[in-house]
């Protein structure tokens, strides 16, 4: 049984250029998904899986991230004086979610570089990485299962999703071997954004990882890859090829609900899907959507 995992890293240094001009002054991680910023869903997922020590890797003009998870005493006092207990509760929930820490990435040199900036905070222990573009439905288990597999096998674990072969070029794709567990595979190799013809499978890596601390040494010697950036996929490929480094790489195959907020269309779909399932919104939204669709 491996070391208990308690820390999570959330890379949040990107410029969010796909959402300009909305992200000119507002971090993309703070864009609302219904009534919470996207990053709050990610932090809530980490906390639900038992990770209460969270490091956010930020960049320039990302002060709103830290502000969101900090106290706003004037707002709290105003809500309390108005007797608006429900809104006060929601504000306080964001503040009390976890022990939040922040570090600047500095040069924007890719996801692998962003993860490497967590080394001093993480130390020599395994940790989770959660990307903010992938929102996992709170009703479906993923991260807790990945942590369980990582602790049992003392290995690195990635989240995998079966996708249509026509979209494999948008993902890192894994070569896999089956194991005795239905939802767990051994990853023998990884390719970053291959063509459909060159893809080793249709198992795509989505934005959840549980990494062994040896990843930091591998990242130090990982040369820039696609887009001249240090790719986390390339470092994982090294770990998958040499199981003596850190117990190899395994994948947990996710078959639940995932919301992609990585581009404008998928972001809109995510809001509609989540709002439709809400008790306070779905009852009115679903009939309206049906009527709206009739007129299209």
Automatic annotation (TrEMBL):
| Protein name, UniProt field | UTP--glucose-1-phosphate uridylyltransferase
Q: Which SUPFAM superfamilies match?
A: Nucleotide-diphospho-sugar transferases
Q: Where is the Nucleotidyl transferase domain?
A: 7-274
Q: What is the lineage of its organism?
A: Bacteria, Bacillati, Actinomycetota, Actinomycetes, Micrococcales
Q: What EC designation does it have?
A: 2.7.7.9
Note the InterPro entries from the entry.
Answer: GalU_uridylyltTrfase_bac/arc (IPR005771), NTP_transferase_dom (IPR005835), Nucleotide-diphossugar_trans (IPR029044)
Supply the alphabetized keyword list.
Nucleotidyltransferase, Transferase
Q: Does Lipid metabolism show up as a keyword for this record?
A: no
Please provide an example of a Pfam family that matches this protein in its UniProt record: NTP_transferase
